[in-house]
Design brief:
five-stranded antiparallel sheet, 243 residues, single chain, 17% strand, alpha+beta
Amino acid sequence: MSDASPQDSTTVLKVVDAFDLDDELRSILRPCEMVRDEQGRRHRLPRYFYEVPSREAAVKIRLTPHFGLNEFTLVDLKEASRLQQFPRYVPCAVRFLAFYLEQFRTAVGASVHIAVNGAYRSPLHKLAVSASPHMWGTAADVYRIGTTILKAKEAIDRYNEIAEDIGADVNVLPYGHVTGLNADDHVHIDLGYLTLIPREISEDRMEQPQEARPRFAFEERRRTERRGPAAVAGSAAGEEKTE
């Protein structure tokens, strides 16, 4: 958790449609696939992500006055190797999480520190056993508040109550030793399975890759614009010659 000034208003996060990424990244992010939580309920994985181009950019870009983008992408060897490198990708709904954590920070009156692997985790993360809001970028594991390391039941219970008072959207895990059901060394805050569809997105696209190579959204014309009637006719003529 950083106390640096807010991001420059000129900083723009690049939105990426995961269906436009290369095969390896799509197999890691699994956009729009259905996954089950521990109760057997099915949830659709996010499709739209922010691209984090470098470590320096992640530190510089701020989602709120007190939370930098880097705090939501801190991972170790438990994460898929491709997502340990840059560029990295984090679901657009991470903005909701940052907003609520900012409210939580104000309520506790101290700095809030997210653990490594404590925010976004891809579906291939070693801690991603079943569907968890971490895969949506809408959950955070807070290991320290101010100078308090969260180990004791009393502290976790107290901060859980404060988090729940922020709003009905906030879910916490009670103190306990069962991973995924309880938390004994952090405060778990999540907003459920939220997705964010950026305003520049048109949802009439089919849920399939639009071209064979990686392409980042909004940087060039749709490939379909280049597949006009002439291209279709040329393709058909080629097939006739083959026959």
